[in-house]
Structures are given as C-alpha cells and as structure tokens.
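Hi R.,

Here's the chain you asked about this morning:
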Amino acid sequence: MKKVVRLTESELTSLIKTIIKESDFSVEPHIETQPRERDVRGVFGKKYGAYIPNDVLRYMRKNPKLIFGKLYEIYGDKAYDYLDMASHKTDEIDFGDEVDDNLDMEL
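And the predicted structure, written out as tokens:
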C-alpha cells in the first residue's frame, strides 16, 4: 500500500528549490567545469549563479566575442560606459546580487 504524504505549500516550494539546486543538468554531463566557467558563473552573483546551467556557462566561455557583441547590440555605445565604469571601480562596485538603478542608462 502506498503512503500519501501531504505537504504544505512552503514545504513543497522548499523541496522543489532543493531539487533544482542539486540537479546539474547538462547536455554534456561528463565534461569537467573549467575555471573560467566558474568565473563566468560569478557574473550572475550568488543569488542566481547556482541556477545557470553548465552548458550556458560553457557557451559563454567559448564565445566571449559573441556575448560582448550581443551586449553591444542591446546597450549600444553605452556598453563602453559600463565597461569603463567596471574597469575603474571594480573594488567599489559589487557585480553580484544587487542591481544599481543608477547604472541603468537610457539607450
């Protein structure tokens, strides 16, 4: 006989989050994570980095020119401003979990 367990909504949510966090789905699961891929994961911060699939990190590592090109398509010449701010203020800006609304410039 099967036992039916009732979970509260918060218990179910917690269980799902745990399963998602522990799963490490990859199209190529036997490829070891490279150091640069761990660095790229850090771009997304502590809050979201754990949810970025390894395949996405690998793609970003292997195609930096394409990634920067896409960011330039999105932000245009303002991308240079962001890069300039990042290169001069890396110890002052936390690129992790918080978004600074002042950095969101108009296109």
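Residues 31-103 form one domain.

Let me know if you need anything else.
M.
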